[in-house]
Write a structure and sequence with these properties.
Mean pLDDT of chain A: 82
Distance between the termini of chain A: 14 Å
Low-confidence stretches of chain A: none
Oligomer: heterotrimer
Radius of gyration of chain A: 24 Å
Chains: A mainly alpha (about 325), B alpha+beta (about 525), C mainly alpha (about 280)
Number of helices of chain A: 13
Helix content of chain A: over 70%
Largest sheet of chain A: 2 strands, antiparallel
Chain lengths: ~325, ~525, ~280
């Protein structure tokens, strides 16, 4: 069997395995959400000010919320199979449209966050590992831990106070300047400008993880046999560290980063809330409290699909980087 | 009695306004970015009175009338109106040459359709405001005649663009109005046209170049931004990214700070049509709160001034009756009622309980209850925490419960599964519109939100409420409401806490945003930027 | 004792342990120093630190921030520890069964674990708390539910590699029951990574609790650091002390727990041990 066929079969197998997981996620969340008191109609009516029970019953009928649960679930599953995520009663828009709209904002924030966190994490982890058990090592691990342990909203608000209000370098919030409605490259720069503070805030949180992972991974590799061999061959410590060890040590860090991009698609509710970043995290949060179940299920579904897909991609990349890892 | 209208008065007011600010030449142009919080569910103000809708929709839709800061009626889509001698016919003369944003002409048929088919059928408060309207005649394109079964003086207070928006017949007729596309793409006659709504970010309205009021609006564009976190809203205001934030979007503590900062101002104007009052609802059908003495003791033991000073940072007025003191303008408010205190009177509270035979057990506890808190922000949690501490000394042991909005609504208004609930209500410009719903027996409507969840029922009071709704004579009406307030102060089915003062924080560059009694729910036609 | 010797060689781990002990002592003695209800309106509101007899100042209702921190330590540690114990319990059972039996059981349990891992965890925690109503119990359950999958994967891996070792084979030959082998033989051999991951989970749990409180999903009747932060966050610009001190308390605790966790890791991880 050729390598390619083997790989394709592996991918197919993994995809088939993912189907029941995704299905189970939908069913589990569907029932979980039913446990919540009240429904979308209660919220809409409550916000509207006053609505008669007859009106609410009418709305429920319109949304299909008056159907027995198994029927509602069956309808939902049927729609999902046909790649239709349903309709958000609250926003009066198709769920897929709503999610797609926010997806890019989330992706932008998450990818830039992971890049920043991984970049700095690798550097800090490397420095710590090279200077094992010295003050540099300790200082780095304490710094990383402090950034991890400081509540995110506090960091976010302090960055706003310092960099937006006092220094005036960055806007406080949002994704674009809404007084101007820039276009073309101006818009790109404008969005990048708005992206800086939320990215820093969120990456501070993940920095600790990558620093620690990088440090541990470097130490792990440094103990391997090939290092001894390299030393025996008379290679310089520098060369061993920065060429051989580093390359191998990066593998788990990159894997982790890949996995996290998938898992982070749920966004960061707190950072999105503090910076008014229009991501999926806030959308999910608001959907929950508005009992907009179709929307929430849609977000969970998307998140599950992405995690499965990213895991798969990571595995494939991993196996090509390191042929010793068998795909089985 | 023919009320030949206020045109003279209105002209006079306009003249004063113009005379009062000769130095300020209004400048045209610019974009006003303001806070809309939270993001509205839709922009269908004809379907929902949800607060954030009110911040956007009245810029797009107009009402027949508007109200100035002294609550005088001023013209809007109706250039004048006429009430017949018996009060049963109200004729509106409409503005000429008004078009919808899509270019169609606005006519009396739109008014007829809006009131008969939309507002009085599916608007949350419309069926109440227009309950006496039996039909509307349209003798010509610019005249709408409302035929009433009984006089309804309060109706003329409910015709603003916020409360009763006039909607385009040609875009709604023959459709299911509740699911019409208009909800997300509004088309009105107002000073601003809907352009775009980017969910999670902003809603954008551009100047209506064909607005019927000559030279208005001044602004080129309005952008309503959604910023979920309160502290960030403050920062955005300080940074000049937004210039206007109403309905407490900026927390009071920050508003107080900005008030004392150059370049920013805070006002409590613009809420007189809303009249918000905070209160505690009780389950009056079951112990311990079926006993009026318990409720009155709570009223005496709570330090209303403490709540106002420490949680709302000085904004608010201790309640002194079931009606807000703002009703003194119409003569309906009654002073000097018992059982309302500004500062806690623990001895009186204890005496009240002792007298009623509610005595402390071995632990000094007279009653235990769960206090539900309205899930509309941190301030209410603080209020609950305060109440728990404040009522312990008189032997009422509370446990706090804070749930999300749907759970809470279901609990209080559907399941009646509560004992004591902190809440706030809009009393609106007339008690018929905003106050009757707490107390009338006909307002015990299980499953309907924000009505008589206390399930208080008093036949004598019901008669007085019915009489108050229809009485056209101001003196007699005042007498009736005085009686109503006396009964409520004795029975105290709900404990009114304080008259809330919502805050509007704005950048001093923004002018002319405060010309309407509706404040943030106004049209912003006359708002302009001095840059 | 060999373990202890290894542990104290790591100075920052010792420091972490010392801080942690101090926090536990503070939690245990809170009622001695601050005998009153920490929610009590103790005096002048918004007093800065040091003024009006408030060590760390008072909040908008005049509650003592220091008293809140002392009493809140109890809640925060309780939430962290109980949630971790529950998550570890679930994770160990799932992971042990999956790793020990393999095959269909492994497939089933691991798919379930993966399912939980694909749901965005913080949103899932919010969802669970919202459904169960905010209370200390629901917060603990929610944190445990989103935390156990990590433990399960770890334990499964350990069981997988240990189940074919000679000593386990020997137990089979002796006719020991599966449960005895799992609990008595394999589990003790994979305790160290469980302890390490568990110690870090305590810190994460404390952070999740404060995040939930920030979003208004704390227990309104119980003082915790998360509660203080949630209640103080709008005051940050006017009365920085109200949420900064509890924030520092969280920071120090999380830091200490992490240092202890790293110390445990270094002391328990044989490969690192050899190198040092």
């Amino acid at each position: 069997m050729s390598h390619t066929t083997k790989r394709l079969r592996y991918v197919a197998k993994r995809l088939v395995q993912a189907v029941p997981i995704v299905f189970a996620i939908v069913v589990l969340n569907f029932f979980l959400l039913q446990l919540a008191e009240g429904d979308a109609v209660d919220v809409l009516a409550g916000e509207a000010g006053s609505a008669t029970p007859e009106y609410m019953a009418e709305l429920r009928a319109k949304f299909g919320l008056d159907q027995p649960l198994p029927v509602q679930l069956a309808v939902y599953l049927k729609n999902v199979l046909m790649l239709d995520l349903g309709y958000s009663f609250r926003h009066e828009m198709p769920v897929s449209e709503l999610i797609l709209d926010r997806f890019w904002a989330t992706l932008l924030l998450m990818v830039s966050t992971i890049l920043l966190a991984v970049g700095f994490g690798i550097v800090l982890g490397l420095i710590a590992a090279v200077n094992l058990n010295t003050w540099k090592d300790t200082a780095i691990s304490i710094f990383a831990l402090i950034t991890y342990a400081t509540p995110l909203f506090w960091v976010g608000l302090m960055l706003i106070v310092v960099f937006s209000l006092n220094l005036g370098w960055f806007p406080t919030s949002g994704m674009e300047n809404f007084a101007e409605f820039n276009e073309g490259w101006d818009r790109v720069f404008d969005i990048a400008h708005h992206l800086v503070l939320p990215t820093i805030t969120l990456s501070l949180f993940y920095l600790a993880l990558y620093t620690r992972l990088m440090r541990a991974s470097m130490l792990e590799q440094a103990g391997q046999d090939y290092v001894t061999t390299a030393r025996a061959k008379g290679l310089t410590e520098r060369r061993i560290m920065f060429v051989h060890v580093l390359r191998n040590a990066l593998l788990p860090v990159v894997t982790m980063a890949g996995v996290q991009v998938g898992a982070l698609i749920g966004g960061s509710v707190i950072v999105e809330s503090v910076f008014a970043w229009p991501g999926l995290g806030m959308l999910a949060f608001e959907a929950l409290f508005a009992r907009d179940l179709n929307l929430l299920l849609g977000i969970f579904l998307l998140s599950a699909l992405l995690v499965v897909a990213v895991n798969l991609v990571v595995d494939i990349i991993y196996s090509s980087l390191d042929p010793r890892i068998e795909m089985s | 009695m023919t009320i030949r209208t206020w045109i003279a008065g209105a002209l006079c007011v306009l003249g004063l306004a113009l005379a009062g600010q000769p130095a300020l030449a209004q400048k045209s142009g610019g974009t006003l970015v303001y806070i809309v919080q939270p993001e509205p569910p839709s922009l269908a103000s004809y379907l929902s009175t949800s607060g954030p809708i009110g911040l956007v929709a009245p810029k797009i839709y107009e009402g027949l009338l508007d109200y100035d800061n002294d609550l005088n009626i001023v013209p809007a889509l109706a250039e004048s109106f006429d009430v017949s001698e018996d009060g049963k016919t109200v004729t509106f003369n409409l503005q000429k040459g008004v078009t919808w944003h899509d270019g169609e002409p606005f006519t009396s048929a739109d008014v007829q359709f809006t009131v008969m088919e939309v507002l009085s059928k599916i608007h949350p408060r419309g069926p109440n405001s227009f309950r006496e309207v039996t039909s509307i005649d349209t003798p010509d394109e610019h005249t709408a005649v409302f035929n009433l079964a009984n006089p309804a003086p309060y109706m003329l207070r409910a015709l603003s663009g916020y409360e009763s928006p006039i909607v385009p017949k040609h875009l709604l007729e023959g459709q299911d109005i509740r699911s019409a596309d208009l909800a997300n793409k509004p088309v009105g006659t107002g000073p601003f046209k809907f352009v775009e709504w980017k969910k999670g970010q902003f809603v954008r309205l551009d100047k209506n170049e064909n607005y019927w009021r000559e030279g208005l609006p001044y602004l080129d564009r309005l952008v309503g931004r959604f910023i979920p976190d309160a502290s960030t809203r403050t920062a955005a205001m300080e940074n000049g990214e937004v210039m206007y934030a109403a309905y407490g979007a900026i927390p009071n503590i920050d508003a107080v700070r900005l008030r004392d900062t150059d370049g920013f101002s805070v006002t409590t104007e613009g809420y007189s049509m809303i009249n918000p009052v905070s209160l505690i609802e009780f389950d009056t059908t079951e112990p311990p709160f079926d006993n009026p003495a318990m409720r009155k003791a709570i009223s005496l033991a709570l330090d209303r001034q403490f709540l106002i000073d420490n949680i709302w940072f000085g904004y608010g007025k201790p309640a002194t009756s079931a009606l807000s003191s703002n009703f003194s303008a119409t003569g309906l408010y009654k002073e000097g009622l018992p059982n309302y205190v500004a500062n806690a009177d623990l001895d009186a509270a204890k005496a009240m309980l002792d007298e009623a035979g509610i005595t402390p057990d071995g632990d000094g506890v007279r009653a235990r209850a769960v206090l539900d808190l309205i899930p509309y922000g941190e301030d209410w949690r603080r209020a609950g925490e305060y109440m728990k501490q404040a009522l312990a000394p008189i032997g009422i042991d509370l446990e706090l419960r804070y749930e999300d909005v749907p759970t809470w609504l279901k609990r209080v208004y559907h399941n009646y599964d509560f004992a004591m609930n902190v809440n706030y209500f809009y009393q609106l410009p007339d008690p018929v519109l905003g106050v009757h719903r707490h107390y009338g027996t006909d307002q015990i409507r299980q499953g309907t939100h924000f009505v008589n969840s206390s399930r208080y029922s008093n036949a004598k009071l019901d008669d007085l409420l019915a009489a108050g709704a229809q009485e056209a004579d101001a003196d007699k009406r005042s007498e009736i409401y005085g009686e109503i307030q006396k009964i409520l102060a004795e029975d105290m089915p709900v404990v009114n806490l304080f008259e809330m003062e919502f805050l509007t924080v704005y950048n001093d560059k923004l002018k002319g945003h405060d010309t309407s009694a509706l404040g943030a729910y106004g049209s912003f036609a006359e708002a302009w930027l001095d840059e | 004792m060999a373990f202890w010797k290894l542990y104290i060689r790591n100075r920052s781990a010792v420091l972490g342990l010392a801080i942690l002990v101090a926090i536990v002592v503070m939690a245990a003695t809170a009622h001695l120093f601050y005998p009153d209800d920490p929610f009590r309106l103790a005096g002048q509101s918004m007093s800065p630190p040091g003024a009006n007899g408030f060590l760390f100042g008072s909040d908008s209702l005049g509650r003592d921030v220091a008293a809140g921190i002392a009493h809140g330590a109890k809640t925060s540690l309780l939430i962290g520890i109980v949630a971790t114990l529950v998550a570890t319990f679930i994770g160990v059972i799932m992971g042990a069964l999956a790793g020990y039996y393999g095959g269909l059981i492994d497939d089933l349990l691991m798919r379930t674990t993966e399912m939980f891992q694909t749901i965005p965890s913080f949103i899932f925690a919010i969802l669970l708390v919202a459904i169960m109503k905010p209370s200390i119990e629901s917060i603990i359950i929610a944190i445990a539910v989103v935390s156990w999958p990590g433990v399960a994967r770890l334990v499964r891996g350990e069981f997988l590699s240990l189940r074919n070792r000679e000593f386990v084979q020997a137990c089979h030959t002796l006719g020991m029951s599966d449960i005895r082998i799992m609990l008595g033989e394999i589990l003790p051999n994979c305790l160290s990574p469980i302890i390490v991951i568990g110690s870090l989970m305590v810190a994460t749990a404390i952070l999740i609790e404060s995040g939930l409180a920030f979003l208004g999903l704390g227990d309104p009747n119980i003082m915790s650091w998360g509660f203080q932060i949630g209640a103080g966050r709008t005051l940050l610009r006017s009365a920085w002390w109200v949420c900064t001190f509890p924030g520092i308390a969280i920071l120090i605790t999380v830091l200490a727990i992490n240092l202890v966790g790293e110390g445990l890791n270094d002391a328990l991880n044989p490969r690192l041990r050899e190198r040092q």
